[in-house]
């Protein structure tokens, strides 16, 4: 026993010791573009990234999918980068790039050998200053997005889970639709609407530029001023959070998926903004209950009772609200009601009993490792710096966020489980195979 404790202690110390403080400089250009510089000369690579404070929640409910559409559209070309040349330029210079969109933001980045920092900065400034938005690009990307939706959602087993969860948990807030949006809305949109969306949201004072990796700060600052300084400041974007009424009665739903043969049970809860302390506590609860094969639900329902093929969870932490989803695929002959009963028993234990010191220490270790992993690559550091500035409003959280998790108590875990995971606060969704039509 003593040997086990020593091993656990050394692992914990090793993770903590490895978690180096992330140093950074930050400043704001006259046009409102916020700049964050993180120098790390451990490898000869540099990341240039821009995060825009625009996501699916900023869309017109009659024109959903715009933010995700722009993730594609703004690779079409610029005044000085011909159509179809963007990716060729990046790869020809030893780099790689990508972009992604959420409900809250859109993120673009390039990873280059460190001697190509100027190229990365120029390309991102081109995307912001000189994008070419025309009917050819809109038509082309419309087909690309449709194919993406077919592959990832329409023809993918369990591909509509998040769509169904979101539309049941949110009735007024824009989180009620998926970032990929409606193909009918995109088909109906005019070129003028796309141009207006770009003018409103893709402006320097609605973005943060992060440079991370092997570079010289003073030279980087000169290039940033040269390429981004001339970009005009846009009309400030005003954001209003739409409040949802509390869920006070269990929501029941069913969805028939033609792409599956095995049913799935889904329990989902609306949770608070990722910026709150309670959201961090819920992260710990998610890990304890259903985070991997050593979690309570997996060990009990899959390993011990053999009642399900799979038990897992997904926590979607977001700027305004979050969603906690627990899902299971029952064994043949096991009903969804039986799975609900088993899940409820574990949640009720959390709500009435303090978790053991051993389980609590294990949770702390999990989150220490997660913190290290998130900042283990220069790409991860760059995205975290952008997110903490743009979505949380505090870049220092890249170093301080782990301290919040360390300060969480067993009593808080019990109390937060009681506050947010009530039976009257959830969605129970039976996600089942589509019924075959009678001939």
Automatic annotation (TrEMBL):
<dbReference type="Pfam" id="PF05193">
    <property type="entry name" value="Peptidase_M16_C"/>
</dbReference>
<dbReference type="GO" id="GO:0008237">
    <property type="term" value="F:metallopeptidase activity"/>
</dbReference>
<dbReference type="GO" id="GO:0046872">
    <property type="term" value="F:metal ion binding"/>
</dbReference>
<keyword id="KW-0862">Zinc</keyword>
<dbReference type="InterPro" id="IPR011249">
    <property type="entry name" value="Metalloenz_LuxS/M16"/>
</dbReference>
<comment type="similarity">
    <text>Belongs to the peptidase M16 family.</text>
</comment>
<feature type="domain" description="Peptidase M16 C-terminal">
    <location>
        <begin position="189"/>
        <end position="365"/>
    </location>
</feature>
<keyword id="KW-0645">Protease</keyword>
<feature type="signal peptide">
    <location>
        <begin position="1"/>
        <end position="19"/>
    </location>
</feature>
<keyword id="KW-0378">Hydrolase</keyword>
<dbReference type="InterPro" id="IPR011765">
    <property type="entry name" value="Pept_M16_N"/>
</dbReference>
<feature type="domain" description="Peptidase M16 N-terminal">
    <location>
        <begin position="35"/>
        <end position="172"/>
    </location>
</feature>
<keyword id="KW-0732">Signal</keyword>
<dbReference type="GO" id="GO:0006508">
    <property type="term" value="P:proteolysis"/>
</dbReference>
<keyword id="KW-0482">Metalloprotease</keyword>
<dbReference type="InterPro" id="IPR007863">
    <property type="entry name" value="Peptidase_M16_C"/>
</dbReference>
<dbReference type="InterPro" id="IPR050626">
    <property type="entry name" value="Peptidase_M16"/>
</dbReference>
<protein>
    <submittedName>
        <fullName>Peptidase M16</fullName>
    </submittedName>
</protein>
<dbReference type="Pfam" id="PF00675">
    <property type="entry name" value="Peptidase_M16"/>
</dbReference>
